[in-house]
Amino acid sequence: MKLIDSCHFAIATQIYAAATTKWDNQNYLMGNAINVKNYGHLSVLIIGGITAAATGSVTLICAATKAACVVAGIAGGTSAYVDPLYYYACPQSSEENDTWVKTAVASSTSIIAAMGTAAHENYIIELDTAKMSLAPWIAINVVGSGSAQLCGVYILSAPRYINSETAPTVLS
């Protein structure tokens, strides 16, 4: 079986310099919010770029609507932080590395306190979508700082449809 037949992929963020990029979530570097209602599990893969620079904290935000899936909504209760309990880190140097270290989340308001200053750092955040307090929308947020470059990919699995070809888009 091919992975594409059992999972749905969506680009979370493109590679950009975090210090100069403002997207639709205030001063946070983020991509599109996605709708997870048709999937039981979400993996967020964050891939560090070639620039050795730190970023601010990494969080996941959930909300009942796409428009509410922003950090500003947390104080008013229209969005909420998501606590996945742990994440995996792969501190890659100039050489290839396939060792992932399971790391406990200290706070849902800062899943990864700061991505490190080394180039090519990579992270995986795993989440059971049933544990989201507000659903079905979720977005990754990375506080921009320095000249860090990164990209992110949402990988949705445990579909409620037969395969990825019959599942509706996660973007609307």
Main attributes?
6-stranded antiparallel sheet, 172 residues, 40% strand, mainly beta, globular
User: How many domain modules?
Assistant: 1
Helix content: under 10%
Question: Quick check: average pLDDT?
Answer: 77
Sketch the topology as an H/E string, one letter per element: HEEEEEEEEEEE
Our measurement of the CA-to-CA distance between the termini, rounded to an integer number of angstroms, reads 28 Å
Number of helices: 1
Shape: globular
User: What share of residues are in beta strands?
Assistant: 35-45%
What Rg, in angstroms, do the CA atoms define? 15 Å
Number of E strands: 11
Kindly report the spatial arrangement of strands forming the biggest sheet: 1-11-4-9-7-8
Structural class: mainly beta
Q: Spans with pLDDT under 50 lasting ≥5 residues?
A: 15-29
List the helices and strands and how they pair.
Elements: H1 3-6, E1 8-17, E2 28-29, E3 34-35, E4 39-48, E5 58-63, E6 79-81, E7 86-91, E8 101-104, E9 121-128, E10 137-143, E11 149-159
Antiparallel strand pairs: 1-11, 2-10, 3-10, 4-9, 4-11, 5-6, 5-10, 7-8, 7-9
How would you sum up this structure, described in words?
With 172 residues, the chain is mainly beta. It has one domain. Strands 1-11-4-9-7-8 form a 6-stranded antiparallel β-sheet. Strands 2, 3, 5, 6 and 10 form a 5-stranded antiparallel β-sheet that branches. The protein is globular and about 40 Å long. It starts with a helix and ends in a 13-residue tail after the last strand. About 9% of the residues have low confidence.
